[in-house]
Amino acid sequence: MGNTYCVFGGCIDQASVGVIERWGRFEKLAEPGFHFFNPFVGQCLAGVLSTRIYSLEVRIETKTKDNVFVQMLCSIQYRVVKQNADDAFYELQNPREQIQAFVFDVVRALVPRMNLDELFEQKGEVAKAVLDELAKVMGEYGYSIEHILMVDIIPDPAVRKAMNEINAGNHLL
Length: 173
Description:
The protein has helices at 85-91, 95-110, 116-121, 123-139, 157-172, and strands at 9-12, 16-22, 25-30, 33-36, 43-50, 54-63, 69-80, 143-155. The chain is an alpha+beta fold. It folds into two domains: 9-50, no CATH class; 54-172, Band 7 domain (Tetrahydropterin Synthase, Chain A, 2-Layer Sandwich), CATH 3.30.479.30.
């Protein structure tokens, strides 16, 4: 973004969309293929956005209702919506940071209301809440959230050890 290519012709790759400006103002989106631009009338290719799916891994550290610190690993798949690529190009400078901030916000609002056992049981509900919030917010910026997975929930090592000892003791009885 921010790079302007004032050339007579340009090729936009498949799974991409071009942003065409005239005299520094958005004019239209360009589909994949070869396009001619007339720099003498101020027309240029302002940039190209990929419409492929991106993956972002987010690690969040938070505390549960029963005061256990956990790290959660969340995987988010997102993409630029072709019809709204101009919003994605002009509105948001760093989508990865924005997505990460919203994931932190939602997870840190939900997880402290659950104890550790509930968190493991309801990790799908946490993922759904994150998906709903991200889809609403990022949709305004021309992005689609395709899928969210809560990949892992990692309690503090001391808590894991204690839980394993409790489970081992229960099996001996």
